[in-house]
Write a structure and sequence with these properties.
Shape of chain B: elongated
Strand order of the largest sheet of chain A: 2-1-3-4-11-10-9-6-7
Number of strands of chain B: 3
Strand content of chain B: 25-35%
Oligomer: heterodimer
Distance between the termini of chain A: 9 Å
Shape of chain A: globular
Number of helices of chain A: 6
Strand content of chain A: 15-25%
Largest interface: A-B, 20 and 11 residues
Distance between the termini of chain B: 7 Å
Radius of gyration of chain A: 16 Å
Helix content of chain B: 25-40%
Order of helices and strands of chain A: EHEEHHEHEEEEHEEEH
Structural class of chain B: alpha+beta
Helix content of chain A: 10-25%
Strand order of the largest sheet of chain B: 2-1-3
Radius of gyration of chain B: 16 Å
Order of helices and strands of chain B: EHEHE
Structural class of chain A: alpha/beta
Number of helices of chain B: 2
Amino acid sequence: MRAAVIQFPGSNCDRDLKVAFDALAGNGRTEMVWHKEASLPDGIDIVGIPGGFSFGDYLRCGAIAAKSPIMQAVVNFAERGGYVLGICNGFQVLTESGLLPGVLMQNAGLRFICKTVELRVETAESAFTSAYSVGTTLAVPVAHHEGNYRADEQTLSRLEGEDRVAFRYLDNPNGAANDIAGILSANRRVLGMMPHPERLNDPALGGTDGKALFTSLSEALVAA
Amino acid sequence: MKARVFVTLKSGVLDPQGEAVRHALGTLGFDGVEAVRQGKVIDLHLTETDAEKAKRDIKKMCEKLLANTVIEDYSVELL
């Protein structure tokens, strides 16, 4: 499989995500793609939108990045059935670009939260979560000021009814509706999540609770 | 031509920032403030001279970028 990571001014988890993608079976080198590019490299199977503070979170977090030239290519890629993983600021960019519903608002407690939180895996029915068992508890770091997921009642009940909540907080740190930490697109090929699995992908980083997400992807994409 | 765009949270959307401001006002003794909602003002300086055309363009700007219509409303004043 071949992966690409998008880089915006202010991205700061791009290299961590590249290391996680590089470690996947058969993925020789992850392409790093600058936001001013209008197209993705050929033959890409998955695009990662990394964490950080793209464009200084000006206007709204993720809003400016969502309108950058490369994001139109990413939207087209996703509409053709491509896999997209957005982590933290990447999740915010995905909601602002319309690839995922809802919005991430300021944390209910008004503070930046940087700590490890517990998540429950809510579905194994996706290329991102197939190596997990439903109900498994993970301890994964979060680091955000706008992680308070909000959507209207209709959208929330559709997400729940379609089994599109991928991860839920056990002890909600930011006020997110329905304790939502990560959601899938309707075709289950776009995942946005606030916690950082790429920061727990190697024992040297303090744990491997995030590794199964990348293992799942590797298995799904190699099989595809 | 100049225009001013007001971006505000939709009613029903929780505004923790506004709530913190309300609380601080209460601390200062302004206890008659029932609610505070915080928003944004965006001033635009435009080369367009046709007011109707400017309004149509600004509406598009708001829908595409200046407001997130999932949670925000906007209004426009030509100055």
